[in-house]
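Long-time lurker. I teach an intro course on protein structure, and each term I like to show students one example going from raw sequence to a predicted 3D structure in token notation. This year I'd like something fresh instead of my usual example. Would anyone be willing to generate the tokens for the chain below so I can use it in lecture? Attribution to the forum is fine with me.
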Amino acid sequence: MPSIRVGLAGTGRIGTSHAETLRILPGVGTVIVADADAERARATADKLEVEFAADIDTLFASDLDALVVTTATDSHPELITAAVDRGIPVFCEKPIAADITGTLAVVERVSGSTVPVQIGFQRRFDAGYRAARAAVSSGELGWVHTLRATTLDPAPPPAEYIPRSGGLFRDCGVHDFDIIRWVTGREITEVYATGANRGEKFFVDAGDVDTAAVIMRLDDGALATVSLSRYNGAGYDVRLEALGSQGNAIVGLDDRAPLHSVEPDYPPSPLPAYPGFMDRFQGAYTEELATFIGVATGQLMNPCPPGEALEAFYIAEACELSRREGRPVQVAEVRR
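-- Reply from a regular --
Happy to contribute to a lecture. Here you go:
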């Protein structure tokens, strides 16, 4: 594998973690980081012993072979299209844009290009989800009748994040919507979503909810439920259950899952619960970035192009419409 120069835009928590991973990946020779906060980028570069670019323009002028985007959502469209226009393969954390209109604009802009754009849905690279997909596709489970997904955060993000997050379905649930599609190979056709607020007032102020439940129908008649919350004090709980006529496959049921049985003869796990997504999915993030390097160097096919992210975003949009109007919504209603 050739040694390439990878730029990284955005040195927040996940960006810094990605930079740390990139610098040790086979095939990566140089990592250059930049951020709207130049001092934060410089501090990250010094800490990780990677190169520093004073701003995004300088980053693009650094003879890049690939770009990783982990900036705020509103900058994603511009950075993706700027990279593609320069012939630079780009990896961008979800979402592509803050809304469907912006997402469609990017998808249409890059659709005719041969420059790959990989969108970050790290669960596709997790060993458990991959095993569940294999179990479904092989027929080992028989016909799948029910899927149950959860994404339960141990504590909410900062109050200032919520108004620009896109809401619980677009920010959080979109990972579940994507992985249900990916594991089953089916499309979600109808949703009914509801939400509640029993926590901080800033969710209400932003027009959002801190807890939600979704019932879904897939195109083969299977049913799925998705549970979401910002307040799961036991720990970070992300699971998927695929239940079939002949068996089941459960992802996330390990000794660090924050599940506490009250059965008297069932001993608790001695291991601490996952505190957050970075710990739970560190291996998946590494595999995802390694795959992107393979995509950028022409050795692998793109596993998650923008069109895949758009499909998950449509489902999130349908859930938000369902919550607001209190009715089942066909996903086709929100397609454009």
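Some talking points for your students: The chain is about 35% helix and 20% strand. The mean pLDDT is 96.
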